[in-house]
Design a protein that fits this description.
The complex is a heterodimer. By secondary structure, chain A is mostly beta strands. Chain A is built from no helices and eleven strands. Chain B is mainly β. The chains are: A mainly beta, B mainly beta.
């Protein structure tokens, strides 16, 4: 069974540009969550999608957005990139909404903003 | 709201020595607790989780953790460190049983000395 796949693995963008990151969850998983990891702020929750609906959102500006498709694949978009957006972006998938679920993480996308 | 505090951002142990990584949590509802490990340039891998039931939880790679409600702690231990255990370890908490929105501690970098 394939794990969580994130593409691309590495990305370099210029300040002011926008970027789209992709996440393919484990087959059968309907929930996808996104996290930002930086040396200064650590791991922070961005948002979570379940069945194409955003269920939860972290404390990030509106420049950060996402969506989920009918096949559960998810994308996150960051517009008007800032230097501080440089981070490892991690996607996690879970089977359902019930208790005792487990989040499986992808290897992440390393975004560098120059 | 939940929060996690990991005491010690860096821990060094000798190969074969006891590993003890500390985690204290704060939660207004019964918590679900997790330990994840991250190797360089990789995503997060679940080591173990506490949901309900037995307070001593055994995980992969010989790790275990004990949930102590009276101390609001969930420390991670391993009797004998191996060189391959060198990595960063994260404690995380969530409420309501789902791992879809995790609150992480700041992480502990474990170094294993030969």
């Amino acid at each position: 069974k394939a794990g969580v796949t994130q593409t691309p693995r590495y990305l370099i963008k210029t300040r002011g540009q926008q970027v789209t990151l992709s996440c393919s969850p484990i087959s059968g998983h309907r929930s996808v969550s996104w996290y930002q990891q930086t040396p200064g702020q650590g791991l922070q929750f961005l948002f979570e999608y379940f069945s194409e609906t955003q269920r939860n959102k972290g404390n990030f500006p509106g420049r950060f957005s996402g969506r989920q498709f009918s096949n559960s694949r998810s994308e996150m978009n960051v517009s008007t990139l800032e230097l501080g957006d440089s981070a490892l972006y991690l996607c996690a998938s879970s089977y359902g909404q019930g208790t005792n679920t487990e989040a499986f993480f992808g290897q992440g996308t390393r975004l560098t903003v120059v | 709201a939940q929060s996690v505090t990991q005491l010690g951002s860096h821990v060094s142990v000798s190969e074969g020595a006891l590993v003890l990584l500390r985690c204290n949590y704060s939660s207004s509802v019964p918590p679900y607790l997790f330990w994840y490990v991250q190797y360089p340039n990789q995503g997060l891998q679940l080591l173990l989780k506490y949901t309900t039931g037995a307070t001593l939880v055994k995980g992969i790679n010989g790790f275990e953790a004990e949930f102590k409600k009276s101390e609001t702690s969930f420390h991670l231990t391993k009797p004998s460190a191996h060189m391959s255990d060198a990595a960063e370890y994260f404690c995380a908490v969530t409420a309501g049983g789902s791992a879809r929105q995790l609150t992480f501690g700041s992480g502990t970098q474990l170094t294993v000395l030969p």
